[in-house]
Amino acid sequence: MDYSVILNVIFKGESKLIEVNGCSSFTQVQSQILGTWLELDISTVNCRYSVGTTVRNCCLGSDVDLKNMLFICQHTLEKIVIVDVDSSFTNVDKSSIDSNMRDSQKSCPNSRKRIGCTNVGVQKNGIDVGSSSNREFTGKGVMPSYEMCPRDNRKSYLSDHWLEIMNDGVGKEFDGGAVEFRMELIKYTTRLGYKFKYVRNDARYIHAVCNNAEKTSCPWFIKARRNKINKKFVVSTLNVNHECIGGLTVQKKTRLGAVIIAKLVLQSVRADPTCSPKDIMHELKESYGFDILYWKAWRVVEGARNLIFGTYDEFYDNLRWYCNAIQRTNPGSSVDLVKNSETHCFERVFIAFKACIDGFIKCRPMLFIDGTFMKGRAKGILLSATTKDGDNGMCCFIKRLLF
To answer: Which of 76, 197, 259, 358 is deepest in the core (most CB within 10 A)?
Structure first.
């Protein structure tokens, strides 16, 4: 593997650049790190690397981890990898470090010396250099799953608790039945960065396996069935071990549907019903850590509005109740609801309240008619008739909605 990358190693706000390639080993990288920061202990040093925005906080503790990192960089075209170092602070013998560095340089003559060590004041969350979040992984190799290291100082997302959905393992119950189980399974796998497919999917039994089960023989699977007594869905068998590549799924192609995402942004749409799909895309990126396409964001906004305010069909269906309520509570009002005689679809409605009719008698004998086009899904025209009273004030007389 001739592909080489630059490791931007960060420890206590200090940055060091190290070049690695297919000939490099983890021992060489570790020796250079220990040679730069003498307070680190080889027995307790902990390294975590991030590639772009798709692979974050992966353990770097062996030659296999280093090869996997190079494999990812080669297929995502990344040249710089952020490596965070954490350790308990103990002293080590500098002579042993120098010996390790000399041995590592002899074992790989093609590897260059360290590029430099500068105090750049880089935050431990890393630097976004050449992000590849919008590139789809096209590699054909098979790699083991990545173990996500605990990292207290990384940015937390509202989707982090999705990883706890399957913590109870076998025996976990879902009160909402198959529907709730499917939603929670999608959240769980989306947060992990893996895809799955259903072997069987019905109201009584669900069996899902890794999307790469046939290609790479990945053993991950989950089975759940409905409890005949309490009607809850219960996880019967589960294997959480992945042996295929993970964390490289293009998040714009996430399996999260518009209905699930709409429930996530429900409060935001309720606070600002005029929010745009781009606002939702930004909120999901900042709060949940994944991207969605524009057309899905548009469906999310429409779905959230429907959950809060109701659908267009419900609005027009409520016109019958509204007209009956006007005639019942405001006698003398003029209400006319017209529908198509064949299709029974709404066509137009005319409303004039009794108070407006009585007030028109004392207004000036002139009428102003205006109309506006409705821009919703159903379209239509809203006509209104107004007049002026004796104090030159505008008085609404009638309203008519045409479809």
So the answer is: 76
Contacts 24+ apart (CB under 8 A), 335-338: none
Residue-level pLDDT at 4: 83
Give me the residues paired with residue 239 across strands. 221
| Span 328-354, pLDDT tens digits | 999 988 888 888 888 888 888 888 888
- Provide the strand spans (E) within 156-271: 173-174, 196-201, 205-210, 221-226, 233-239
Around 88, how many Cα atoms within 13 Å sit in the side-chain half-sphere? 3
Rg (CA), the chain: 32
Helix (H) or strand (E) run with residue 381 in it: strand 381-388
The answer to whether residues 233 and 127 touch, using CB atoms and an 8 Å cutoff, is no
Q: Are 242 and 220 within 8 A, CB to CB?
A: yes
SS3 assignment, position 348:
strand
Closest CA to 49 of 69, 29, 78: 69
CA angle 72, 78, 79 (to 5 degrees): 120
Q: Is 51 exposed, middle or buried (0-12, 13-18, 19+ CB in 10 A)?
A: buried
Say which residue the tokens 């396409």 belong to.
Answer: 293
Q: Output the six-digit token pair for 57.
A: 């906080």
**pTM of the predicted protein model:** 0.48
The segment with the largest mean pLDDT, out of 34-48, 220-234, 353-367, is 220-234
Q: Which pLDDT does position 155 carry in this prediction?
A: 63
